[in-house]
């Protein structure tokens, strides 16, 4: 499809700027543009000491665009605290209660292992609690097993040993 030629003597693009033309060159001798209005002269003071300390109770300076409001820190401050893993705390409590009731110590140690796995996956706090629960729980469990063997196993072995030999 072709377009008909423009009427004779008329250029349809006359008066339109060339979109591919370079921008006009700036005048190097022109004064720089000012966006700040000129400052009015202030009243003359008889004498001002340039070495005098500034008044610490003076009003806060006016804020410009992009500045944080008065009293707000320009940076984020401290990062928010990570959440605590509650299973690690429960595991430590059960391991320590195992000192009184031996049966809760292995439960606390096993929960401590589960808490360590959760902490590695979620990035929560409480790794120290979980490690303490594991250590305390298995130590108390081991001491309980040794105590049970001493209390019940040795007399049982003594009975078996005495029953096998007869002295008539």
Automatic annotation (TrEMBL):
Transmembrane segments in this chain: where?
87-111, 132-158
Q: Where is the composition biased (Pro residues)?
A: 19-40
* A Pfam short name: DUF4190
Keyword annotations: Membrane, Transmembrane, Transmembrane helix
This protein's record includes keyword Transmembrane helix: yes
User: What InterPro entries does the record point to?
Assistant: DUF4190
Record-annotated DUF4190 domain positions: 87-146
Q: Where is this region: Disordered?
A: 1-52
Quote the biased-composition stretches of kind Low complexity, using this chain's numbering.
41-52
Name-wise, this protein is DUF4190 domain-containing protein
What's the source species for this entry? Catellatospora methionotrophica
């Amino acid at each position: 499809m072709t377009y008909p030629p423009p009427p004779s003597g008329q250029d349809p693009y006359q008066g339109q700027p060339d979109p591919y033309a370079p921008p006009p060159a700036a005048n190097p001798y022109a004064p720089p543009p000012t966006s700040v209005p000129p400052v009015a002269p202030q009243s003359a003071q008889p004498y001002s000491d340039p070495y005098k300390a500034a008044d610490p109770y003076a009003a806060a300076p006016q804020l410009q665009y992009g500045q944080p409001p008065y009293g707000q820190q320009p940076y984020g401050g401290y990062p928010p605290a990570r959440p605590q893993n509650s299973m690690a705390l429960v595991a430590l409590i059960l391991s320590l209660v195992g000192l009184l009731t031996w049966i809760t110590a292995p439960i606390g140690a096993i929960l401590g292992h589960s808490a360590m796995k959760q902490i590695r996956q979620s990035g929560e706090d409480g790794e120290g609690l979980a490690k303490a629960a594991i250590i305390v729980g298995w130590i108390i469990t081991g001491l309980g097993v040794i105590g049970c063997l001493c209390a019940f196993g040795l007399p049982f072995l003594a009975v078996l040993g005495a029953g096998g030999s007869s002295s008539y």
